[in-house]
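Please review this one.

:::
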Amino acid sequence: MDWEVAKWAKTRGTGSTAFSNLLAVDGVYKALGLSYCNSAELNHIIDTEIPARRPAFIRKEVECIRALYGFPDHVRYLCVSPERHYSNAKKTQRLYHDMHTGKWWWNTQVQLEQDKPGATIVPSAYPVYLTIGNLPKEVQRKPSQQAQILLAYLPTTRLQHLPTKAARRRAVSNLFHACMGSILAPLKSAGIDGIIMTSGDGVRQRCHPILTAYIGDYPEQMLVSCGYYGHSSICMVAKHELGEYPCTAEYHDAIQAIEVAHLIGTDEWAQSCAAANMKPVQHPFWEDLPYTDIFCSITPNLLHQLYLLKEIALYAQQYQGVMKHLIKWITANVGAGEVDARHGMRHFHKGITTLSRVSGTKHKQMCMFLLSLVIDVPRLAPAKSRRLITATRSLLDFLYMSSFPIHSDESLTSVDAALALFHENKHIFIELGAREHFDIPKIHFLYHYVRAFKLFGTSDNYNTETTEHLHIDFAKDAYRASNCKDEYSQMTKWLERREKVNYHARSQKTLHDMQCPLTQHFTKFPTVKTVSISKLEERSLLGYGATQFEYALKRFISQFCNPEFTPAEVDKMASFLSLPFRGVPVWHRMKFRNKDLYGKKTLDVVSAHSARRCQIGRVRAIFSLPKQYLNQLFPANVTPPVHLAYVEWFTKFTQRPEPYSLLYHVKPQFCRDGSLGPVERLRRGP
């Protein structure tokens, strides 16, 4: 009880004052048998009795890497050497997914082996939130796995006391690189000489931590690479040629950039920076990091580059997520009224054109119906309509294929082909007046996606959605726990205590056998406690559209209780069945989860089930039967499913896709009643 109350107070409870007031209530402290009587005593116990898993403010990167590498829960996931994976026996189709399957690890291992044979590389990504590339991406992106560490809170000052904007920008850049240089200084010797690290199972290896990948949005990319806004962070392409495809510009030369950085203090420094298209930043943090190519380490960012809006007032130009651009272009051609009337998504009852501050998840949902909007745009010539459809479809194809969790050489060729097809037809947006040019850095960056996939693995290795979520724990919640004065010291102390409690809680758990089931996951409580059957059958915007819900439920109960009945007997029994309730609890969301992707054992045989004997359907309602009435509907020896789904069926696929959108046509089967059954029979689409 003593530990459980302490854990609740530091992870789920109220503030320190409220907790102290709770324990001050007569009888509470003694009844619980606690070893502390207020928040101050509990904090003292945590600070002195529970060992810190990670070093505190400011954290040393090498010690953080040791903590990640030696975390017992990570031992079964660690990858200590690069691998090549193939999809066929002849090894002609290479696969890319986790970082250790990319080419960067192989290339760097060759360079390192020349000086330090037998070395183990520890790639580090995003040096403010730190993780290591030895961990699979499925582990890295789960906050509960604690696979990412907060290195430091960087200063956010805008230096308003400086007289001009140019001086402030230079000072902010220099301050950022000075802070990062101090944080990453231990990597200089550790990357060359190596350090001995011990994994969670006690195995000791000489490891070389190397800065590998930087994850951030466009302004952060330019800040790190010392580039100018409006230019590319990877190659030397001119600003007015960003829209050209294919890109023929040379990549930034990291060796040249380092040589230019070392010229600081000489007369040639400013001129050399201009020739290398670099800002004159004093001592970039990456200038002495071994085996680091900062321009190559700039990775794709699906959240900000493809989905989210990111506006910067500079050179009268707007930098937005590519999908935000596409939605704007389509709206300009189709019309806001047409877009809002056709969306057909439950999330956007009032349309999408008036929305602001839309999350990445909502942008993904918007993209699901964009192609259907442009297939039959009114008042558009057939030739232009075909080009508009092709441009939209190819860009959406690029988006979805870029999100694949695993790529082969063949699929990467398809990614390049989709981008090339978009550039062939993109001028239709200029002809229709939706765009004046395509000199947009984020659209240009799409050209470098395939190269990044081959070097570092697929895009979900370095997506900022993970770090965006970490902001809640490490920044927002930590700030709220402070008194908003001298907040950094309070935030770091709050974070350290929270990590101690979480780490101690995990150490109390025993390891269970690993399984890999793909199961449906629901929230503990329904979205709506009770929804009437009449509302479920209603087809309006406020209803669910499950028009035959009551009859389908009666048929399901009859058939489930009597599986040997013929369809005619089931219908006859259903007609006499009376439901003792007029409402059911309803869930609006269901997740398919693979609880444990990585097992203790390596399976030699994997059974893949095709989509045969499956039909497309629309889930109108997910619900459960009221528990208090189960004994009236089912005999004692029959246990009904916990969650049920009402499905409205669609026709079968057409034999061939439509030639321009490459989509197969289906439509609702209005002549067929909906079906009702357990959610375990549902199969998720790709």
Remarks:
- Residues 540 and 636 are 39 Å apart (CA to CA).
- The longest helix spans residues 382-402.
